[in-house]
Amino acid sequence: MHNKSAIILSRFFPLRNPNLAIDAIRLYSNRPGPLIQYKNLIQQGKLQHDPYQEKVATELENLLGRLEKYEQDMEIYNEKLANWEERRQEEHRKLLVEEAEKKQQGDLWASVKKKKNRLVQNWMFRGKPMNVEPGVGKWVSYLNREKKLDSLFGQRPAPPPAPKGLYLYGNVGSGKTMLLDMFYSATEGVVKHRRRFHFHEAMLEINAHMHRIWKNQVEENSLRSSVSSWIMNLPFDTKVKEWLAAEERFKEEIQMKNILPAVADKFLVNQQPGRRGASVLCFDEIQTVDVFAIVALSGIVSRLLTTGTVLVATSNRAPRDLNQDGMQKEIFQTLVDKLDEHCQNILIGSDIDYRRLIAQRSVNQIHYFWPLESRQIKEFDKMWLEVIGQHGGRVAPRTIPVMFGRTLHVAESCYGVARFSFEYLCGRPVGAADYIAVAKNYHSVFVSEVPVMSMRIRDKARRFITLIDELYNHHCRLFCTAACSIEDLFQGTEEGTLFDLESFQFETETEGAKLRRDVLAEGNVSSGGSPAGIVSLLSGQEEMFAFRRAVSRLIEMQTPLYLDGVKQLHPCFQREYHEGEHDHESTLLSQTSV
Length: 594
Fold this sequence. Notes:
The protein is α/β, with parallel strands linked by helices. It contains 22 helices and eleven strands. The strands form two sheets. It has a six-stranded mixed β-sheet. It has a five-stranded parallel β-sheet with strand order 2-3-4-1-5.
């Protein structure tokens, strides 16, 4: 019976050749490590030596060295895992086919026995309700198959021990993001899967993955009569095929019941299926601004760390101090325990804002024009003409894609340069997803007529801080006209001071609102009844972090050290670099094949 099942399956599912998955060329990074980068900048006079920063750079350098060995271990592990998954899936289908054959043959004795058992049950439980939960039969069948598969192939292979990551925390401007970026750039070519996220972008990507998975589930459930292609080709009648399809759907539903691990498994692979290897997640500005952030980060980060991902993260707070408002304590504690187990916590203890110090010691280019008077406006317009002149000078409207299937209209666009009014970017219901799209598409962004932030325009202030975060994280050049200096921008007006500036993370992401509530329910929490299911529970200290970070970043964005890095670090120039590198590799391959 078993051999017959194997023959049936082999006609339709030949095993793939594992040799085809072997990479032909392995390129390692020739970029200097974080410690060398840090010391070079000090020697060039662009940075001032700081013992805390040097300690972190040394730890990151050591971690980079351990990653090369870990990448090799993970390649071996992932090959074993792929083989285990493939053999297990093949055997799972064989077991299903065996059961289908029994159903097809219509075992008479089984039918008689079943009727006999039913008569006995009816007599024993006469007068009593038979409360059998729907799906129990499928659940038992599923568990029996899984138990047999475990006996044949063992449990899922355990990954090799991962090097401990780093969790860096400290004051605004202490160098956390700079050191994180040095490490991230040095990992290129060392590990296959490497992603760098700021909090805003990570949360949006989590939402996008959740929405995609949920949408796929809905589409599959709506196609009641659909049968998997591999089942359609089997030599069984329609009724048996429908049974097979129902069993397969049940298995998928069980595996997808907890959506966060499913999201985590897709989080680092850039939607490139089949690619395996070590993974590094660089996560800038970890925050727990609402219940969803705690539930999502706990589920996804825990899954990634458990499956071997190395985490390097930054935050203003130590892990145990992230949840100042005591939201979802048990779930939050799971996150803290995982971070403590898999990361070394390092305080960058300097009280100096090095962004300000660098700005004081360098001759800055003027990209921030204030106040809003005719002379400053003319200088701003002159700078616009100068920059677009360097990129062809042809200005035209353009529509750029945004997450969740939305788009953003850019009225003035010129080959990586764009111009907006403050009101257009921050006075409308847009958010982090829109600003990420702007930052990825434009290396130089002009924003006119930035006002002094006040209580009356608090929502605009929230959006402006998120805009600054994303332009900074993607290393864009920012040109502004503003009503006051950078230092006075967030001081408030006679209407009072500002507050609660970091709660605007997802105000516009209504597409994922239903799914977010589902995740909150899984975490035994409620959405709090707010329109988007987000509850703002931030303390006054969080508010001050937001102010200080925005001011500090605006100051740094005027410095030569920051501006010199635009052509190396912005996504537009990164794409050009990698396209050129790919063309060079293709040329080498064609030459060696001759």
